[in-house]
Write a structure and sequence with these properties.
100 residues, alpha+beta, 4 strands, four-stranded mixed beta sheet
Length: 100
Amino acid sequence: MVNLQTIGFDVLTEQEKNDFKKIYEEYSNRISQKIKNIEQIKIHLKEHNYKEEIKDKKKKIVIKIFIKIPGRDIEAEAFDWDFKRVLHKAFKRIEQRIGK
């Protein structure tokens, strides 16, 4: 089993946590088929509030994914206003980096 470390996920709602579990499971299966010796996956989430957006309570979400394998570290970053969309963006970027 891969060692998963999440940082900043304490701000998520229960629905967002469930969304994360589904999306993570989907992409982690695809990634583990491409890379067999993953030591650790670290996912770091940050939310940025903007004063002019307070009435809509929109937050810019930044997600960074780090994958540690022997001899190489792979990382990707994405940002968006929608949690599920930013997760998909970040995981697609990590998949692209794995392919290189």
